[in-house]
Write a structure and sequence with these properties.
three-stranded mixed β-sheet, alpha+beta, 3 strands
C-alpha cells in the first residue's frame, strides 16, 4: 500500500476535479465531493460512490434538495496502488467515473471508456 497523507490525497482529488473540462464543470449541478478513509462495510473494493439524482433523471419535479454526493475512498485506492503515480491515475479515474454517474452515465459505459 502506498503512503499518501490525507492532505496530499485531497489535493489529488482537487487536481482531478480541475482536470474536468470547463463546460462539464459548469453543467454540474448541486453536487458535493467528499473524501473518506474507508469504504462502506462489506465493500472494501469500492473506490468511489455517487449518491443522488443524475442530471439526466431530473425533471420538472426536481426542486432544491440536498446535494448529490460523490465520495472518494482514500484507503481503498491506496490499497490497490504500488506507486504514487498509480495513486494519481486511480484518483483521476475514480473522480471521472463518479462525475460520469452525475451526468447519467452507467457503469458499463464508463468501463468501456476506461473509467
Amino acid at each position: 500500500m502506498v503512503d499518501v497523507s490525507a492532505d496530499e490525497f485531497e489535493e489529488l482529488v482537487e487536481e482531478a476535479l480541475r482536470g474536468i473540462p470547463r463546460d462539464l464543470k459548469r453543467a454540474m449541478r448541486n453536487v458535493a465531493v467528499f473524501i473518506e478513509d474507508e469504504s462502506p462495510p462489506g465493500q472494501p473494493a469500492l473506490l468511489g460512490l455517487y449518491e443522488g439524482v443524475p442530471l439526466t433523471a431530473r425533471g420538472e419535479w426536481y426542486a432544491w434538495v440536498q446535494p448529490d454526493r460523490i465520495t472518494i475512498f482514500r484507503l481503498s485506492i491506496l490499497r490497490i496502488c504500488r506507486t504514487r503515480e498509480d495513486v494519481v491515475v486511480e484518483v483521476t479515474k475514480t473522480v471521472v467515473h463518479e462525475v460520469g454517474h452525475h451526468f447519467g452515465i452507467d457503469d458499463e459505459r464508463l468501463h468501456e471508456l476506461g473509467y
